[in-house]
Specification:
There is one protein chain. This protein is an alpha+beta fold. It has a single domain, classed as Jelly Rolls (Sandwich). The radius of gyration is 18 Å and the shape is globular.
């Protein structure tokens, strides 16, 4: 066997091993963080372009739903090959895109209440997931996520209505209800470095902290579903399929 062919096969085996470890962690915890999934220049480009989005122009800084429909840069982000490759691994098949949402999270923005993403999408178990892409370093103090490892093993959990009024700078559905989490699951805060993506199982219970810093916490959320699976379009989101190739 030629040396180059041996190297190629060796690299392929290493990649398979790495993927198996990533999948194992995702299936055990319900989430996985992949570092450096987009470079810093692309992060800065997306942040700069966000200034042209409607909710930046009107100074509400409410999360912008579906920016990929009006701007090719956000569409390209949804189609990022490294992200799509990870999604394909986690959903055991070829995915399509469903949704993008750009979060400005200006200083003082209230966090998202505890929820399961699939509460909104109503897909079959295990075929829907999200990539939460940090465009700036996120920490618990800077609106970072709260996750309940292992809670994705549950189906859709009951929710209770909150008494919170909608906040101008937050998603209008962010604080309508709060997921009731079984006591065996305990919350942890996760920090996600700039340019990294937190992959979130559709049934993982999670929320976010208030942004208590004096900086915006920029995040692009991209959601995906396995090809051919059913989903809820949603009155607000108006999801539809985006081909990724």
């Amino acid at each position: 066997m030629h040396t180059e062919e041996m190297k190629r096969r060796s690299l392929f085996t290493v990649q398979q091993t790495h993927n198996a470890l990533k999948l194992k962690e995702y299936e055990e915890k319900g989430y996985y963080i992949e570092d450096n999934i987009i470079n810093c220049d692309r992060c800065e480009q997306l942040i700069a372009r966000s200034a042209q989005l409607e909710n930046a122009k009107n100074s509400s800084y409410r999360p912008q739903m579906m920016p990929h429909r009006s701007d090719a840069l956000f569409l390209d982000a949804l189609k990022t090959p490294k992200i799509v490759e990870m999604v394909r691994l986690f959903c055991y098949g070829d995915p399509v895109g469903l949704q993008t949402e750009f979060f400005f999270c200006k200083p003082g923005t209230r966090g998202f209440s505890l929820h399961q993403d699939n509460f909104f999408v109503e897909a079959n178990y295990g075929v829907f997931l999200s990539a939460w892409i940090a465009l700036t370093d996120t920490t618990p103090e800077k609106g970072g996520l709260i996750v309940y490892p292992g809670s994705h093993k549950e189906r859709l959990l009951p929710v209770q209505k909150t008494n919170l009024r909608p906040e101008q700078a937050q998603d209008p559905n962010a604080n309508n209800e709060n997921c009731i989490v079984p006591s065996q699951y305990q919350p942890i805060n996760v920090s996600v470095p700039k340019g990294s993506a937190l992959f979130i199982h559709g049934n993982l219970v999670h929320g976010s902290n208030m942004n208590m810093t004096n900086e915006f916490r920029y995040v692009l959320l991209c959601t995906y579903i396995k090809t051919g699976e059913k989903f809820r379009v949603g009155k607000y989101a108006q999801r539809n399929i985006v081909q990724l190739t």
